[in-house]
Design a protein that fits this description.
Strand order of the largest sheet: 2-1-8-7
Strand content: over 45%
Helix content: under 10%
Structural class: mainly beta
Low-confidence stretches: 1-14
Number of strands: 8
Radius of gyration: 17 Å
Length: 143
């Protein structure tokens, strides 16, 4: 039997192409007094103003990232870093995705939650404090 790919239709009537979900584990921190903040990673540049004003940090380092093509009704992936890992299960709901998230430090669970991701609406989740700042989890639906 041939596997069939799920599809949806856009408001204009044409088929919706599979989107991608970008997930990342980010270390947010403050530059040392008298030093200029490190350059912002290009993936986070569109959100620079919101990140700095909402989180209160002025520099961000991506510890691990993954882009998953959403070509099935359900997807599951892991975004690993040296000491943290992010487990994501996503189910397509129209043009959005219902995601179940698990965040772990080595083998210790730190967070389990659910959220809905949609195009043009990235999700930022504050994680635990870190020696030099705070861990942030980022999700974005990309075309």
């Amino acid at each position: 039997m041939e596997a069939r790919r799920p599809f949806a239709f856009s408001p204009g009537g044409g088929p919706v192409m599979p989107a991608k979900v970008w997930s990342a584990v980010v270390l947010a921190s403050k530059a040392k007094k008298g030093e200029k903040p490190a350059p912002l990673p290009s993936e986070l540049a569109p959100f620079a103003k919101q990140l700095t004003s909402f989180l209160g940090y002025d520099q961000f380092k991506i510890l691990g990232a993954k882009t998953e093509v959403m070509d099935k009704a359900d997807e599951h992936w892991i975004t690993p870093t040296k000491n943290f890992w992010l487990s994501t299960e996503a189910t397509r709901v129209g043009t959005s995705y219902r995601v179940k998230l698990g965040f772990f430090h080595d083998t210790r669970p730190l967070l389990k939650t659910e959220a809905v991701l949609g195009p043009g609406s990235p999700l930022f989740i504050r994680g635990p404090e870190h020696v030099s700042g705070q861990i942030i989890m980022v999700f974005e639906v990309k075309p």
